Structures are given as C-alpha cells and as structure tokens.
Structure prediction request, 245 residues.
Amino acid sequence: MNIRIFRVEVADELRAIVREPTALLFAVLMPVAFFALFVSLYGNQQAETMSAGTSMLATFGTFGVLSVALTNPGIGVAADRERGWLRAKRVSAVPIGLTLAAKVVAALPYAAGVLLAMSVIAALTGSLDASVTELLRVWIVLLLGALPFALLGLAVGFQLGANATTAVLNAFLFPSAVLSGLWMPLAILPAFFGHIAQFLPTYHLAQLALAQLDGGAAVGHLLVLLGMTALAAAFAALSYRHARS
Prediction:
C-alpha cells in the first residue's frame, strides 16, 4: 500500500517540477547550457590524466545535479508550507515521510537528465574519453552524493518561505560552485580558493566523482560527505519540528 502511495506522490512531484518553468530553466537548462559553452571552448584541452571535457563531467556534473537536488525539494516544501498543503498532508492518511521522500526522489530523474545531456554534449564535441563503466560510476556517485544536499534544502524549506528558500539555497550553491572549482579548475584560481574548498562539501562531492575517472583517493571525500549527511539529516529533523510548532 505504501509503495503505491509513494509512486503516486513521486508522480505528483515530477509533474510539479515540469509545471514550474522558472525552476526548470534555472535548475536544469542553465547548468547544461553552461557546460555546453565551457566544453566547446576548453573540452579538448588535455589535463594530466584525461581531457578537460571528461573532468568537467565530474565538476560541472556536480553543479548540475545540485542545482536540481538542492533547490527543488526545499523550495517545494517551502511552497507547500505557505499554501497550507503540508499541514493538510500531516492530518491525511499519507505518511508525511513518504511525501518528503517523494520530493527528493522526484528530483533525481531531472538530475540524471542533466548528466545525460552533459555526457552527450561531451561526446558530440569529441572531448569524452571515459568508458561507459566510468560514466556510470560518476552518475551513481553524484546522484547518491546529492542526498545530504537535498536534506539541507528540505531543512531550509522548513524554516523559510519559498522566495527566501530560493535565495538562501542559491546563495549557498553559486559561491560554493566557484570556490570548489566546479566551473573553473582550482589550479588556475587564486591559491586561497583551494584552501577554502577543503571545507566545502561541494568540493568533496566533485572530487569523489573525479576519483571515478582518474582513480584518485576517495575515502576522505566519502567520509566528509557521510558526516554532512548526518548533520543535514539532524538539521532537517529539527527544522521539521520547528515547522510543526
């Protein structure tokens, strides 16, 4: 029974994202457009172990996945709170946990679509030199690694209105993308960017994705993301209690 309800909830959330053209534009189309621009300019340059276009799948891919998974669940929760829909859900027969899980799960197909579009663009520009297995590993890492960011988005959505949630999450995402080297390699940025990046979970997710392509160290980055998951889950739980009070 719960599985059937969950499928209905996910389907509703998938349609809700499509019905919001602004969110679709900024969360899905803009990261892909950015990637297409940068990979067409620099994708065929050779880095140490791979082409720049291939490494961009990990770094720009991190930005693309988070632009969906970080913002959409949180903004959706905030909008539901403002409309009173979340309050109605709490007194309905549908467990509130299923509704919240559906918001997170519904973002994943769009995030996967972003990764697919980026992979196709990299292949069409001739800058993709990763195997199918490596690409799948990158996709899995990024989609699973988006979970703590989705929890963070939910936590903010429980605390603030829809407009404020949008502003706060974008204020986190865009500076983090720059400071983590998601758009431009840290090697060509001022040195202090690299020092700051060590404290940003976006950097560790991108490095974990890159490790699937170049065989780099992954354990440290994984531990950081696991720690963030625990903190984000605790923050989301506390924020949910705040929203109920």
Summary: The longest helix spans residues 96-124. Residues 2-244 form one domain.
